[in-house]
Design goal:
alpha/beta
């Protein structure tokens, strides 16, 4: 059920005037599989999160092959801990493939996030495999 605009507007104004607006805290996660620097990917993810007014709690990355499992990635364990402890509400990564590559693993990841509850946001990747941060134009654009 959609709330009338005035009702939503009043709630937003009340939250802002209280001095304690609800903040959505997220963790950024990048998988670097091409041997490049994670800085370009993390900067892109930070801009995506901040554009949504989310607060970046942590920025984590792993150097690993795209097909590696999450358990093989040291920084992913910290992402899981932050989500389980509800230190953050979600994870922002370049793509779902960077977290879970196999279809069955993707389904397990989605089920796990729903069970917490937590969310994952996957903006278009900035590099599409390039470590220099340049974008490859999408074919459908």
């Amino acid at each position: 059920m959609n709330q009338p605009y005035d009702s939503v507007r009043r709630r937003i104004l009340a939250d802002a005037s209280s001095g304690f607006p609800e903040q959505v805290r997220v963790v950024l996660y990048a998988l670097v599989s091409d041997g490049g620097s994670p800085l370009a990917a993390l900067n892109y993810l930070r801009r995506q999160a901040e554009a949504r007014d989310w607060v970046v709690h942590s920025e984590l990355f792993d150097f690993a092959d795209l097909t590696s499992t999450r358990s093989e990635r040291p920084s992913w364990a910290e992402v899981e801990r932050l989500l389980r402890n509800r230190d953050v509400a979600g994870v922002v990564a370049g793509s779902e493939d960077e977290i879970a590559f196999a279809p069955a693993d993707k389904e397990r990841l989605r089920d796990w996030l729903r069970s917490l509850p937590a969310f994952a946001k996957y903006p278009d990747p900035p590099t599409a495999g390039r470590s220099d941060g340049t974008r490859i134009p999408r074919r459908d654009a």
